[in-house]
Design goal:
mainly beta; two-stranded antiparallel ribbon; elongated
């Protein structure tokens, strides 16, 4: 399995400048690039960025999440 992203169309309700409308958007449904998880030392288990048991929260930068494995 490659690094293919599965895209799906979604109907959403939004508002801009107090104008409410519905819109169909194309979003990523599945991706092998999960950039919101920390891979633990065993290489199998993960935890979400910001989890209370991850002591160092400096891995979040302005350009996005940086891979981090707690010591």
């Amino acid at each position: 399995m490659g690094r293919k992203k599965e895209m799906r169309k979604m109907n959403v309700i939004q508002s801009r400048l107090h104008e409410v409308f519905s819109e169909e958007v194309n979003k990523i449904a599945l991706s092998s690039e999960d950039d919101k998880r920390v891979i633990m030392e065993d290489g199998i288990h993960t935890k979400a960025y910001g989890h209370y048991s991850i002591p160092d929260r400096s891995f979040i930068s302005t350009t996005g999440a940086v891979p981090y494995i707690p010591q």
